[in-house]
Amino acid sequence: MKNSLPLFRIVLFLFFCRMAVPQTVTAQENPAADQDELSLPDITEKPRIGVALIEAMASNLVLGGVNRFIRRADYAYISLDSINSNVTSTWVWDQDEFPVNQLGHPYQGSFYYIAGRSNGLSFWQSSALTAGNSIFWELIMETETPSINDLILTTAGSISVGEMLHRLYVASDSAGFFFKWILSPFDGINDAIFGNRRNPQNYSPLYQEETYFSFGPGMLLSRMDSQRTGTVDITRPSLFIEGGIVYGNPYSKRVRAPYDHFEVRARVQGSIPYYSLELFSDGALYTIGLWDTEKHQSALTLNLHYDFIYGSLVNYSANSLGLGYKMHQSVSENWELSFKSHLNWVFLGASEFIRIWYGDITYEDEDAEHRTYDFSTGGGAKIYFYALHSRFGGIYLDGLVNFLYTIPGTVPENGSPGFAVIGMGNISYEKEIKAGWHAGITASGYWKSGFYTEAKNVHELITSCSLYAKKRF
């Protein structure tokens, strides 16, 4: 499936979402958060199933019309013959570019999803609506053979993106944010038409203690694989902007519905001529509270993860489902600790194949699409820890590692079967210098080792060190 939606809309989501949420709400100010079960519908009116179906279909027709009449894309000239061919064809793994598949499809599908949520459908009903419209697009709205990866990414990724956007829109609505439609156009349209009145107990407040915005200068240091053409060793000054949102109490047992708690971190880093756009998120589908006292809170969670890095040096994505453990401990009046961990199944991952992406591979048909990354599945883990002293500051650690095996039948032309081990990590120290403002230093690393049966192995390392200013809310 092709996608003409501009990537800047995704970037806007990442950085406007902090502006969109109320900055004076704390976890204790929503008395409805004490309820353990979601007993009321999302909006006070009866769910508008028919309107949701029409709006989701309208988003398909609008995008299809743009592709055909404005962009004049070959794949948009559908006919009865193309529909019949798609319906009777075997689904394939497509050759679309990384940003189209890993970023564009989840964002496009979020329109299907929010068409449901903004009309009162539940999380699971909206998920089914998303899957149904993705299938419709693959079979009807393009001349290309239906794609397995498009169906997975448009459904799973869109659930994550759509639910986060929907909830942040509601948070911005309660704060009177004028540009909230940037987050979720369908929510804005339906609020204007129907005057939606939502049940506030269905939504969580922002967990301000771990929500932040930061920026600063740094240095990029990289040791790239020799199979890349051009410069292998890279040393460049860099700048970054990063934002993190924690929605709902991550340590509470009182999670009443999917995504009543989620965490999302976005980062843009530039180092001429290199760039990187990153997003890491996890949303709780189900929570079991373990402990909830004044000094100690902990919970087990079932989480859906949507992560990607899109840049000039790294292309990486992981759609995962896994178990999580989150704990917060007030050790003393001055000390507090937090620990979060996830053990995940990566049901669809992707990472660049260096030999194709940066090598000197040539093709007989240069005009045809040739995928430069593989599709993979495997296991992985994430951890996050901080120790904070009210006077001396805090130390923050986070990291992940994934073991990704190439899915049979998805090897790109001139690629190879095999597996990759991908790891990332950050360590930071920061101290509050003024109410809400912190100064710090951070070191980050990314490494990849790829082991292949029909190509040379790959070993790469990218590191950076930065000074930063951070605003905690």
Structure description:
This is DUF3943 domain-containing protein. Keywords: Signal. InterPro entries: DUF3943. This protein has a twelve-stranded antiparallel β-barrel. About 8% of the residues have low confidence. The protein is built from eight helices and twelve strands. 26% of the residues lie in helices and 39% in strands. With 473 residues, the protein is an alpha+beta fold. α1 packs parallel to α6 and α2 runs antiparallel to α4. A hairpin with a 2-residue loop joins β3 and β4. It folds into two domains: 195 residues, no CATH class; 265 residues, Outer membrane phospholipase (ompla), Chain C, CATH 2.40.230. The protein starts with 7 loop residues before the first helix and ends with a strand.
Tags for this entry?
single chain; about 475 residues; alpha+beta; Outer membrane phospholipase (ompla), Chain C; 2 domains; 12-stranded antiparallel barrel; about 40% strand; globular
Quick description:
Residues 1-27 form the signal peptide. This protein is α+β, with helices and mostly antiparallel strands and 473 residues long.
Written as H for each helix and E for each strand, in order along the chain, the element string is HHHHHHHEEEEEEEHEEEEE
Total beta strand runs: 12
Count up the helices: 8
Overall tally of structural domains = 2
Radius of gyration (Å):
23 Å
InterPro entries: DUF3943
Keywords: Signal
Protein name: DUF3943 domain-containing protein
Pfam families: DUF3943
List the helices and strands and how they pair.
Blueprint (H helix, E strand, L loop, with lengths): L7 H13 L28 H22 L9 H9 L9 H20 L5 H18 L7 H28 L9 H10 L17 E12 L9 E15 L14 E10 L2 E19 L3 E16 L3 E16 L4 E18 L1 H4 L15 E17 L3 E14 L11 E17 L2 E16 L5 E15 L1
Antiparallel strand pairs: 1-2, 1-12, 2-3, 3-4, 4-5, 5-6, 6-7, 7-8, 8-9, 9-10, 10-11, 11-12
